[in-house]
Amino acid sequence: MKSTAKIVFGLVMTALLGACVAPKPAAISDNTFATTAAAEPQAQPGRNLYFIPPPPSSLDGQRTVEDVLQAYGPYATLKLASYFAKANVSYPPQKVAFIALKQEKKLELWARDSGEFRFIRDYDIQAASGVAGPKLRQGDEQVPEGIYRIEGLNPNSHYHLSMKINYPNEFDRFHAWQEGRSKPGADIFIHGKASSIGCLAMGDEAIEELFVLTANVGVDNVKVVIAPHDPRVYPLVADTEKLPGWTLELYSSISREIHALSPTVKSVKTGL
């Protein structure tokens, strides 16, 4: 009995000390990652009849991407397939783009098969700390701005599920080096739950869909663009008195990328 109590206490303390993500994940197949450190107990969804519990062999902190797909894949795929059918895009698509708009607190899902990118749907961003402007250093609580890719999938996140973006990317690292910023920050994720510092918190149900979609498409086929606001509504203008001079170049790049990904935004989203 005492031995059991010690084990339980140890697991609780491990969970409490955890951060947004477990330590560096170990690579598994299909360009995804699975962590081996203990994670917070995962709440049972209970919100639909399609939930399939993970296999008994998948212990807390040890589940794989395949376990997540078995648990959440059927229901998430059912919903995703419906969205894609309405947009006339096959599921799973060949390419996916997530456009995160900080001011609007929206994450847009765009995808394509053999044709151009088409709008599939958007999701509310439940939490994203900071203000307009790029992330510059560790601890500034800023959500990065730029063009990124998904670096890996974490099925054992303390925030239900998470997807790591490759911040700092080459552009971020170059300007950090040029300005002598040795700690530009790291470990930026798109994850579940409704709280975050420097990441994009999407809520559990949304991250299940995004995680399943990314796993099915493959991380190499997913692009993430994060903007201070929607440049299709009004231009991105950098306040160079408060932001680095290179923010002008960054915003120009973000604007071009969003316009290239979503050239038919008005006709697809509003019918106008």
Automatic annotation (TrEMBL):
Family matches, as CDD domains: YkuD_like
Annotated protein name in UniProt: L,D-TPase catalytic domain-containing protein
Family assignment from sequence similarity: Belongs to the YkuD family.
Example GO molecular function: transferase activity
InterPro entries xrefs: LD_TPept_cat_dom, Transpep_catalytic_dom
Pathway: Cell wall biogenesis; peptidoglycan biosynthesis
Top-level lineage group: Bacteria
PANTHER family: L,D-TRANSPEPTIDASE YAFK-RELATED, LD-TRANSPEPTIDASE
Segments forming domain L,D-TPase catalytic: 96-227
Source species: Methylotuvimicrobium alcaliphilum (strain DSM 19304 / NCIMB 14124 / VKM B-2133 / 20Z)
Signal peptide: 1-26
Biological process according to GO: cell wall organization; peptidoglycan biosynthetic process; regulation of cell shape
Entry annotation: catalytic residues: 191, 199
Keywords on record: Cell shape, Cell wall biogenesis/degradation, Peptidoglycan synthesis, Signal, Transferase
